[in-house]
Amino acid sequence: MTTNWKNVNNWHWVEKNCIPWAKEYFKNTFVGLKEESDNCSVEITEIKKFNGDVDVNQRKGKVFAIYDIDCDFAIKGKVNDIDIKGKINIPEIAHDTEEDEYVFDITIENENSEKRPIKDLIRKQLVPKIKSKLVNFQGDLIKSNTGDVYIPPEKMTGHPVNTTTNIVIDKQSNEKGETKKEIVSLGSWNKSITVKDEFFTSAHELYSIFLNPNKVKAWTRSGASMIEPKENGKFNFWGNVSGYITKLVPDESISLKWRIKEFPENHYTDVTLSFVQESDRVVLTVNQSGLKIPYDEQVKSNWTNYYFNPIKTTFGIGLVL
């Protein structure tokens, strides 16, 4: 039986409105959160307001989330024997918001000096707990809704599935390790590549996109991806690309020891990402050495397909090539 004839190879843009899912997620995740101190207690009792847009999108086989939410949590609590009600407003929960950028506006009904200690409890104990759960939202959103926008290759029955061809015996491997195939490698590990692209953002922001753990999870669309944003810190993208950071020059360059699973054991390439700020954009240059045929051409195209283009679509900062 043939399937998915309208969107072979996941080529067309597919979008799912995930507002109902997100509302239920926030209810299940945040309602009931509570904190206590010696004379104070506070608890989130309901999601009082949930406005905005939450979409999961797929284009050319890439799945990503775009959302911007304005949310109110209703709260109740006590200071000594005084009953307290109020709300916590988070005016912007967005796909590109960093953990330290969230704003929490706390309102207490009929606030006075006797009730004020509850604000300290909220800021010091409840807000960090909320933040720790907000950072999981994007990954959970994509994981739970990908099946409605993305067609796995094994379900593309009866239709040609897009594949990458290089010098192969009968197998091929891509950056994400989605297909395990054997590459015929030729020559010595002495090939170098250079890849350039432009992003309509600042060097500071693009530098952060490559190093911030939450942003890395966003543009890789993988909960398995991680990075330790420090020199000698490890990274792993998609479970297939790994290595460690050798040097960081804030907003200017990132140097890496970089490998994919198919490389010989303990073989790493040297990668340097250089960020040059221009008037309305930043030019990113990737220099990579220590490759061999056919990895050089494969890896060169993968920088565009698996790094640059997803970053542009996830954060809306460039034209997809």
Automatic annotation (TrEMBL):
Q: An example Gene Ontology cellular component term from the record?
A: nucleus
Q: Which GO terms describe its biological process?
A: protein folding; protein import into nucleus
Cross-referenced SUPFAM superfamilies: Activator of Hsp90 ATPase, Aha1 (SSF103111), Bet v1-like (SSF55961)
Q: Cite the InterPro entries for this sequence.
A: Aha1 (IPR036338), AHSA1-like_N (IPR015310), ASHA1/2-like_C (IPR013538), START-like_dom_sf (IPR023393)
**A Pfam family matched by this chain, by name?**
Aha1_N
Identify the residues that the record assigns to the Activator of Hsp90 ATPase AHSA1-like N-terminal domain, covering every copy: 15-148
Q: Which molecular function GO terms apply here?
A: ATPase activator activity; protein-folding chaperone binding
Organism domain of life: Eukaryota
Q: Family membership, please give it.
A: Belongs to the AHA1 family.
Record-given protein name = Activator of Hsp90 ATPase AHSA1-like N-terminal domain-containing protein
Lineage runs: Eukaryota, Fungi, Fungi incertae sedis, Chytridiomycota, Chytridiomycota incertae sedis
